[in-house]
Hints:
Layout: H1 8-18, H2 32-40, E1 45-52, E2 57-64, E3 83-87, E4 90-91, E5 97-99, E6 102-111, E7 114-122, H3 129-147, H4 160-170, H5 175-182, H6 186-200, H7 205-212
Antiparallel strand pairs: 1-2, 1-7, 3-6, 4-5, 6-7
Helix pairs in contact: 1-2, 4-6, 4-7, 5-6
Amino acid sequence: MPVLVLSEAEQVAMRGVIAGEPVPGVALAVEGPLRHLTRLIASDAMGIALLEDNGSAVGETALHGRRTNDEAPPWDDEPVVVGIRQRDRILSSKGSPRGGVAVLSLGVRRSPGQVVKLWLIRRETDFTQRERAVFGIVAPALERILRERPSSALPPSLTVQERRVLHHLATGLSNAEIAGRLVVSPATVRKHLENAYRKLGVSNRLAAVNALEGRQNRADISDDADTVA
Length: 229
């Protein structure tokens, strides 16, 4: 990774991305963190796509600029995966562009079977090593913003860490996997879940996910608490 020397404006933009939080009632497209990202990494277009694991797009939102009609979706030539992906433009033997766009993207699992992908494209130049390094630094904050769907229905007594455990729970992760993501012990995850269940008035994982997503508890949810297993 190259040594990064950030200008004052870039430092402000990076802090804006890292400190960003989903805001209930505010569309992701107009949230501050992603506006800050455009100040860190220039692109011709940026957007978000919700993808099924089979590669089909459930929806796509333009955040900055737009893809042209003759440009393939930035995820078409790759499997639906989580994490950072980058693809350079296709060049001719003489070094001139002969098709394709440069793509820098981040895939985040939002629920079992679905991945949300943030993508940036550039038509005339590739993304530089420095820009890729900057993207890698802010990727954990972007993952959190993309994964954590805001819900105004959640009780304000839930702590930030309890909310993050619930968001990971909604993606289908086990307690051990959540512990690894948050760099805490499984016992700490269980304690956060116990507290979250109590504050939400639920007794199992499915009911907690329903509450997180603003749905009413389904009648077929078992009262046999799988509690915090």
